[in-house]
Amino acid sequence: MLEGKTIGVIGYGNQGRAQALNLRDSNFRVIVGCPPDAYRERAMEDGLDTFGVHEAAEKADIILLLIPDEVQPVVYHESIASGLREGEALGFASGYNICFKLIEPPSNVDTFMVAPRMIGSAVRSRYLSGRGFPCLVAVGQDATGQAQRTTLAIARAIGGTKAGAFASSFEEEVIIDLFAEQFLWAGIGKLCRLFFETLVAAGCTPETVATEMYLSGEMVEVAKAMREEGFFKQLDLHSQTSQYGQLTRADRVLGQGAEERARQVLEAIRNGDFAREWAREQTQGKPTLSRLKGEALEHPLNEIERKLSWSTEDE
Ligand code: NAI
User: Fold this and answer.
1) Which residues lie below 8 Å from residue 42, measured CB to CB, with a gap of 6+?
2) Cα of 13 to ligand 1 centre, how many Å?
3) pLDDT at 255 exceeding the cut of 90
């Protein structure tokens, strides 16, 4: 499906660089589209044919839009839409802008998603080592009747079929991705802060609490064991006192109302409330994001990290 086609990778950051190099090493013709910035220089240093975004989109038969989700709509409308011709294909690594209708490509082009479940640097290193990585694939529009084949060909060429390409949809990718960020990661972050603040208020040494919490690396080892031995089976690696404490106290920590709150967070993702809130935040210059990030970087944990100047280099 990709023979003789020009694949235009728009963006040369986390995903753009990894996917462009993987496609090139799979022997396909790749060009990169970037504004004149440090990313573009890197693409040139890597020996790729590099153009402005509009020029690359004009030249390409298959476009992979690999720039941050929040700038995609403007870049698409200003520099890509006019270069799309009938029968071409537009690919995404996330479902966000199609799902929330911030980008609505013409009906005569294919649209598809190949969303690696992997950070960009590992998309590259796992391609080089031959391990590959899992990814979610979906067709949005099938104008040519060949969109599914193009999607799988791109997934395969970047190393995304070796560990399994899961049939998904733009909507499912967005819901799972945002819910992981807004429920799982948000919850873990809040619990960790509470853990630290409660123990320090009770007189425990901040350095020891931070070490218990994440600096020792035990948390990473438990996460590894969850993956390797099983989410629940790894409980056997902990003492029985620990197992009893974990299993009996979970509902006290996240009991009453937790299911309802989970549903509310999910509902705001599904009905577009979160996307609209985030769009408003961006037009206002991201004041809430700046304030909350500023507060997080003032948290006492930052000072403890500086004091302990821990290193993971030997691990
Ligand atoms: P990134 O932040 O690394 O993208 C940087 C690139 O975007 C640079 O080439 C820069 O020149 C370009 N860029 C930034 N602002 C621009 C603008 N206003 N106009 C034109 N170009 C601009 O992006 P990343 O993290 O690679 O994300 C790309 C896509 O991949 C997104 O859809 C994201 O959701 C998805 N994704 C990202 C993953 C990751 O590892 N970060 C994992 C899976 C999917």
Assistant:
1) 12, 17
2) 6
3) no
Q: Give 22's contacts (C-beta < 8 A, 6+ positions apart).
A: 123, 124, 127, 157, 158, 159
Q: Which atom of ligand 1 is nearest to the CA of 43?
A: 9
For 36-77, the pLDDT digits (tens) are: 999 999 999 999 999 999 999 999 999 999 999 999 999 999
pLDDT digits (tens, 9 = 90+) for 145-185: 999 999 999 999 999 999 999 999 999 999 999 999 999 99
Q: What is the pTM of this model?
A: 0.90
**Level-2 CATH architecture, domain 6-168:** 3-Layer(aba) Sandwich (3.40)
Q: List, in sequence order, every residue forming a beta bridge with 136; answer none if it has no partner.
A: 115, 166
Ligand 1 neighbour 73 (Cβ under 6 A)? no
Other Cβ atoms less than 10 A from the Cβ of 291: the count is 10
C-alpha to C-alpha distance for 172 and 14, rounded to whole angstroms = 22
Q: Dihedral, CA atoms, 145, 146, 147, 148, nearest 10 degrees?
A: 110
Distance spanning both ends of the chain, measured CA to CA: 43
pLDDT exceeds 90 at position 83: no
* Alpha-carbon distances of 125 from 18, 116, 131, 159, 287, rounded to whole Å: 8, 13, 9, 10, 36
Query: Where exactly are the structural domains of the chain?
Result: 6-168, 172-314
Tokens of 140: 């949005």
User: What strand order describes the sheet that includes 110-116?
Assistant: 49-51, 29-33, 6-10, 62-65, 89-92, 110-116, 135-141, 165-167
Residue in the structure block whose two tokens are 């960020």: 181
Question: Does the beta carbon of 11 sit less than 6 angstroms from any atom of ligand 1?
Answer: yes
Q: What are 7's two structure tokens?
A: 């694949």
